[in-house]
Amino acid sequence: MSTRVDEVAGAGIAVRFDAKRCIHARACVLGRPGVFRGGVDGQWIFPDEAPAETVAAVAQQCPSGAITYRRVDGGPDEAPPAANVVRLRENGPLAVVADLRLGDEPAQIRATLCRCGASQRKPYCDGSHLTSGFVATGEPPARTSSPLSDRSGPLQVRASANGPLMLEGNVEVVSGTGRTLLRTQACALCRCGASASKPFCDGSHARVGFKGP
Ligand code: SF4
Ligand code: FES
Asked: Is 136 in the pocket of ligand 1 (CB under 6 A)?
């Protein structure tokens, strides 16, 4: 797996690509093919091929956070969302869009986190769910919860040793189609792949001997 990190600066925006975060969802190359050129050797990002606002909008569609940017023309940088959301991917990872504080890492906004247990770069998804036979609905039953008085603010996510992802902060867990599953200020999400109540941890990680830093 590539660990390449590229930053390409254009006149209005500098685009950064972190290869180890990419899950190949292709929002970039499908969103603006002239800017993000798939299947080429060497340079593949050309920020000046579209207005900076357009490049920024496409970058924000990158679910994994592999693509980030900084404006060099005085335009606004990406801001945390008005509502922190964790969305389930059918048979795939957790897609987070939040004012995310993941472990000791700098604040970030978009990330895809492993929930199959097989990723080689936990807590991030590396696409292993595609080959590990992971099966998990994107439309599980909802839990009873009340609307949050504040839906934003820092969302702390900590991968507990050999256990679940521990979330603290205002967050809405939603299904693949956006249906509310839980509104909460604290929860534990399964990352071993074995819970019978996915996406929530039910303690199965101990039974299956899950190992995860
Ligand atoms: S949108 Fe992001 S995750 Fe998807 S292919 Fe492009 S860089 Fe990778
Ligand atoms: S992490 Fe999967 S059941 Fe706890």
From this structure: no
